[in-house]
């Protein structure tokens, strides 16, 4: 049994001051990742700061059309919120495609952003894993690397996929993450929050020690657009994506005026496919256009022994989603 101190915070400032710069401390909200990893001895916090009393569970429409989501808003509340369902359908669909109802009832917005990888070599506690033990190697590269391993954004040090469905939708929408820490408050662009593994896979996000996510603010919905989240997996019930796409598209007749494409299950972070978006803009909404854009999205993909199928599957996720949205 690994002992730890427990504290309950009543304000973000108190939470941050209690946590301090202690790299071994952890914030506790829904606990669906933290408690899971503590039980298998992958995370060993010496202090747990409970933030469930903080007033961070509101969803607000701002004057400029953006939507601000409190860090403690549950996945269920966010998915079922009227504004999210009407103006950000891709986000509602992504949330409802992930996990069980019980988990969605506990999991929070900030916790979902902070999800850790599902790579079995990371979670078994004994295999070589640069993310868990920097410099030890990556057992996944030469091991079984089919379902939760990436073909985009990988490095010689790590090939684990980011597991979140919600984050794929947010990458497509565009968002800002507000954090509060020992040095004050700051905002981080959502696309800059999750880090590529490169040669430091142990650094998964842009938070500094002690910083706490307080809000995620979505960009204003794209006017006259439609959106959809498509998740492809081994079975439809509660599986992580083999490949997924969050797509937002705006049409003028049969011409694509603007498109946003994000991918899940194939990247080491929620993956915004800017090259695919550029290939779609101004083009006719045809299968040939969709296929060309999908191929562009994966032009720099690196397949491994067991996951090369993710390249055509990821392309299908884009083509099928666009076909549905433009029908």
TrEMBL record:
SUPFAM superfamilies: CO dehydrogenase flavoprotein C-terminal domain-like, FAD-binding/transporter-associated domain-like. InterPro entries: CO_DH_flav_C (IPR005107), CO_DH_flav_C_dom_sf (IPR036683), Diverse_Substr_Oxidored (IPR051312), FAD-bd_PCMH (IPR016166), FAD-bd_PCMH-like_sf (IPR036318), FAD-bd_PCMH_sub1 (IPR016167), FAD-bd_PCMH_sub2 (IPR016169), Mopterin_DH_FAD-bd (IPR002346). GO terms for molecular function: FAD binding; oxidoreductase activity. It holds the Pfam family CO_deh_flav_C. SMART domains: CO_deh_flav_C. This is Xanthine dehydrogenase.
